[in-house]
Amino acid sequence: MLKFKCTFRNNGVSEGTFLRWWAKSGSLKNRLTRIKKMDETLPPLFTFGVIADIQYADIEDGFNYHHTRKRYYRNSLRLLRRANEKWKGEAVKPSFIIQLGDVIDGYNKKYNASETALKTVVNELDKSAIEVHHVWGNHEFYNFSRDELMISALNSRTTNDTTSTMSEDTTALEDTVESGNVSDTEESYAYHFSPAPHFRVAVLDAYDLSLIGRKEPSVRYYEALEIIQAHNNNDDLNHPPVFDGTERRFVKFNGGFSKCQLDWLDRLLTLSDEKLEKVVVVSHLPVHPYSTDPICLAWNYERVLSILHSHKCVVCFMAGHDHDGGYYRDASGVHHLTFEGVIETPPESDAFGTVYVYEDRMALRGNGRVADRVLLYP
Ligand SMILES: [Zn+2]
């Protein structure tokens, strides 16, 4: 059953007043029944599936970097298949699936198996015949260059008719940076789409500013180098600079968002505010320190948070990367969901969810390690 949590956050009604109204309007039991009925009988406006960190590779099980978590490289494909079966059998078939990044593991590169592994997971996803929106994570860049990704099956921006870069609504996402006589145009993999009237999804590129998602002589590569060197003196930049706190995020396997992309997001959310839309923002890297181990945070997460908080339309921010998952509803009412990774999910469990979208809320129905949650609108 879905969890229902009633909060009194920022609504200007005291708990006492609310309870008095509650008592007048019917017994607690009746009210709860109505809530339950509403959850289980009213059809959603639409639904969508979410899955994170599949990291498939045709290799034996292994462990994470610190040898604290087992990784089930082949089983991850079986769990993807199980998620697909569930989505295909849903009474309301999901309108789309969000794949939150790291769809195949970096080990594939070592075994020259990147293309084969990608084909395997894409074939599996295709079986559902449901549109998939792919987010790019660090493992995408361990396997492929940005140019390769742009023309691969993982570029869902170009394969979906319903998607658009911001260029159609406001200005182009492409950033032209003048550097002496050199004009450097750097494209981000960020786009948005509207799955239903008054709803929008924004897909962000968390490696827009990074050492793995950009290559020399990219201006953004040098900008990323400057950022990481200001915080991390280690020879191995995948090793965090400190043992504790949010400074640990300054590692090579993370990245951030360029100013251009953040300006684009700000403009997009301004338009969504005007259109009274509800927006879901997705990225491989989480942006709230309470929704993840801080080592997984995007470098400039504070900037993203300040943009999210300056708009009324944002319902939730969904991310992957931290395989343990996490959840936090911040003071502005934005739900931060970090999805548990398929790769560290044992064969007897699962890690995926289906989001049911209603007029007044979204309800996440989790499977296995992913918990059920009601996401009331801010
Ligand atoms: Zn990752």
UniProtKB/TrEMBL annotation:
Cofactor(s) recorded in Swiss-Prot or TrEMBL: Mg(2+)
Ranges of residues in domain Calcineurin-like phosphoesterase: 47-148
Pfam families assigned to the protein according to its UniProt record, in alphabetical order: Metallophos (PF00149)
CDD domains recorded: MPP_Nbla03831
InterPro entries listed in its UniProt record: Calcineurin-like_PHP (IPR004843), Metallo-depent_PP-like (IPR029052), MPP_ADPRM (IPR041869)
Superkingdom, taxonomy of origin: Eukaryota
Signal listed as a keyword: no
Keyword set includes Transmembrane: no
Enzyme Commission numbers on file: 3.6.1.13, 3.6.1.16, 3.6.1.53
Enzyme class: hydrolase
GO molecular function annotations of the record: 2',3'-cyclic-nucleotide 2'-phosphodiesterase activity; ADP-ribose diphosphatase activity; CDP-glycerol diphosphatase activity; manganese ion binding; RNA binding
Protein family membership: Belongs to the ADPRibase-Mn family.
Record text on subunit structure and interactions: Monomer.
Protein name: Manganese-dependent ADP-ribose/CDP-alcohol diphosphatase
Source species of the chain: Anguilla anguilla (European freshwater eel)
